[in-house]
Amino acid sequence: QCVERNTTNVLNDTACDMEVRPVDTMSCSAGSCPFLWGFSAWGECIPDCELGYHSRNVYCYDDSRRPRVIVDDELCSEAGEPPTNVSRCGSGPCQQVGTWLAGPFSDCSVTCGVGTQGRNIECVDSNYQSIDTIYCDPSWRPQQFKDCFNMNCPNECDAEHPICPAVASA
Q1: Angle CA 87–89–90, to nearest 5
Q2: Mean of the pLDDT values across residues 142-165?
């Protein structure tokens, strides 16, 4: 394959010098095979705290050529299994750089009787920009829902309004 030198991106064959193109197959005995596994540096850890993952490019190259030429992965079959391209990473617990921001409670979910009220809760940075909740201390998270009681009930009780004020009898 024709590959860009710095990025290992695959290019059209016309972008490479065909006179220096390596052979597609070659037989080699154990220990003398010029095809080896190579890899790039590890990428950024995602997320950058707690336990995350990072990845890298793994490729087969012809070590007998200078500069080294990336070849089809099948040519590295005698070089053993390819190195892993994904690994776990993490720098330990996330620093608590965020703070919880609680919005106002909504109206009661019912007009008569016991209902609930809810509100939006966000983890925000010092500029009040929303960030991942791993940056806020969960023990300080405000209450998101609460019970409410609404007495705006009709004067008569029915199946839809079982709680109603006492009606004075005549």
Answers
A1: 165
A2: 76
